[in-house]
Amino acid sequence: MNKVLYKPLSWVVGALGGVLAGQAFKQVWKRVAGEEDAPDATDRDYTWTQVLIAAAVQGAIFAAVKAATERAGAVGYEKATGEWPDD
Predict the structure, then answer these.
(1) Which of 27, 55, 80, 87 is the most exposed place for a label (fewest CB within 10 A)?
(2) CA-to-CA distance for 11 and 42, rounded, in angstroms?
(3) Is the pLDDT of residue 55 over 90?
(4) Which domain of life does the UniProt lineage start with (predicted)?
């Protein structure tokens, strides 16, 4: 039963995590590259190296924020219900 109750919470937490990850990446990219937006893969004004580094940094930030928000959601759920979501 606890997985059924946790699922909607995990969707909200996941959406929030996506928003936070996007904002975090934008700030990191602005500070590191000095530009507002990271290069798109098809932007001819950037090198392969620049495009791949941007993608790798974005992926790492999204993965870290996703893990952090999912963990925080599970901990919050446990505090509210006394049960860990995957038990």
Answers:
(1) 87
(2) 31
(3) yes
(4) Bacteria
